[in-house]
Amino acid sequence: MTQDEIENRFKDHSPTEKQKEMFKKIREKAKEFALLINELCPEGSEKQAAFTYLDSVVFNSNASMARYTKKPCCPECGNTIFSTLGKSRFTCGCVLLEDSEKSYGI
Questions:
Q1: Distance between CA 101 and CA 88 in Å, rounded?
Q2: Distance between CA 85 and CA 31 in Å, rounded?
Q3: Which pLDDT score is estimated for 96?
Q4: Closest CA to 106 of 97, 58, 23
Q5: What is the distance between the alpha carbons of residues 48 and 41, in angstroms, rounded to a whole number?
Q6: How far is C-alpha 23 from the geometric centre of its chain's CA atoms?
Q7: Distances (CA, A) of 31 to 28, 37, 58, 79
Q8: Cα separation of 104 and 52, whole Å?
Q9: Are 87 and 101 spatial neighbours (Cβ–Cβ below 8 Å)?
Q10: What's the confidence (pLDDT) of residue 54?
Q11: What pLDDT is recorded for position 43?
Q12: What was the pLDDT predicted at 105?
């Protein structure tokens, strides 16, 4: 693991409003699955393990979004920018606006 990876792993990653919405979607789907597990699975250590793993899935999903979702967002569609495809397009497919490389730190 590189020094940068360690730094990123343990620094504060305050979520944006869009990330908060994504976290909520993950939690809602996990809750649906937890209710299904609770309904269909008999009590026992395996069921408890399933809930523990589901907790881990939610945590790690949220951590991946917080740690690796780069800001800012595309000025056209609002999607988070991960990288650019050449100098004319975002990964979401939107065309870069004039001066957007400076404005959006690309």
A1: 10
A2: 36
A3: 56
A4: 97
A5: 10
A6: 7
A7: 5, 10, 10, 26
A8: 39
A9: yes
A10: 96
A11: 98
A12: 46
Q: CA-CA distances (angstroms) from residue 57 to 5, 14, 63, 89?
A: 20, 20, 10, 32
Instruction: Give pLDDT, residue 11.
Output: 84
- Let me know: does 106 contact 84? Beta carbons within 8 Å: yes
Domain ranges in the chain are: 16-69, 70-106
DSSP class per residue in the chain: --HHHHHHHHS--PPPHHHHHHHHHHHHHHHHHHHHHHHHSPSSHHHHHHHHHHHHHHHHHHHHHHHH--S-B-TTT-PBP--EETTTEETTSPBPPTTHHHHTT-
Cα–Cα distance measured from residue 7 to residue 9, given in angstroms and rounded to the nearest whole number: 5
pLDDT of residue 28: 97
pLDDT of residue 33: 97
Taking 50 as the pLDDT cut, the residues of the chain under it are 83-86, 88, 98-106
Cβ–Cβ < 8 Å for 56, 76: no
Predicted local confidence at residue 106, as pLDDT = 42
